[in-house]
Amino acid sequence: MRPFPRRAFYSLAVLAVLLSACDQRAFDSECDIVVLNESQCALAIYVDGHEAMTVRPGTDRAFSNIGAGRHVLEALDSSGRLVQRRTVELATGEDFYWTLDSC
User: Fold this and answer.
1) In this structure, is residue 9 part of a structural domain?
2) H or E segment at 10?
3) Which DSSP symbol is given to 3?
4) Within a domain: residue 48?
5) What range does the domain containing 85 cover?
6) pLDDT per position as a tens digit, 33-55
7) How far apart are CA 60 and CA 43, in angstroms?
8) pLDDT at residue 29 in the model
9) Domain count of the chain?
10) Exposed/middle/buried for residue 75 (C-beta within 10 Å: 0-12, 13-18, 19+)
């Protein structure tokens, strides 16, 4: 039986180090929706008819691990009035960034 070649051992070691350094998000199959609230008021964000989060003025928040497919996003002001509605189609692992600049 031949010994394991030294070059192959070093190649495997380098590959192991590189793979361990990779960002886990590169392998993420879930989708995220990131809301950037550039308006002057807090907005309640609904995803598929369910309240997901509130985003304060001048901040951003993420709704993580949503499945791929079609989703309806709604932003409502503090009085419950619809500010904006979006329908998005997300592929596996795709993230969506939604900028809201008025309320």
Assistant:
1) no
2) helix 6-21
3) P
4) yes
5) 30-100
6) 999 999 999 999 999 999 999 99
7) 11
8) 76
9) 1
10) buried
